[in-house]
């Protein structure tokens, strides 16, 4: 589903946080919280792992909801995704994702 592609190009449909939310899977929430805590070097609790997807109605993780600079920028400009932005190729914010995730970049080019 196209609406499950986040503003940055990540596939929310493949996200374990979304899966944990939709299936009310607390064990998966705990796993994701632990992985994200290590990856981001900030404490993320299982209670924070509630998200239905970046661009769909429903719950968002605290980061995705209020802190993600990519989501805030794209929403502020009224874009469906960063793929609509003429500055996408040189965007420092977006490169945090697309710089090491070719799939996200390809999703934005579709």
Give your account of this protein's structure:
It is a single chain. The chain is mainly alpha-helical and 110 residues long. The protein has one domain (2-109). 47% of the residues lie in helices and 0% in strands. The chain has 6 helices and no strands. The protein has helices spanning 16-22, 26-40, 62-67, 69-77, 92-98, 102-109. Helix 1 packs antiparallel against helix 2. The longest helix is centred in the N-terminal third of the chain and has 15 residues, at 26-40. It starts with 15 loop residues before the first helix and ends with a helix.
Key features of this structure:
110 residues, mainly alpha, 47% helix
How would you summarize what this structure contains?
With 110 residues, this protein is mainly alpha-helical.
């Amino acid at each position: 589903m196209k609406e499950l592609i986040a503003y940055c190009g990540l596939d929310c449909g493949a996200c374990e946080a979304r899966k944990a939310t939709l299936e009310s899977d607390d064990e998966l929430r705990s796993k994701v919280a632990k992985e994200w805590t290590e990856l981001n070097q900030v404490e993320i609790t299982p209670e924070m792992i509630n998200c239905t997807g970046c661009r769909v109605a429903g719950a968002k993780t605290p980061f995705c909801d209020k802190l993600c600079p990519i989501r805030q920028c794209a929403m502020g400009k009224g874009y469906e995704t960063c793929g609509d932005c003429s500055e996408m190729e040189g965007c420092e914010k977006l490169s945090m994702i697309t710089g090491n995730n070719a799939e996200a970049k390809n999703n934005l080019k579709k």
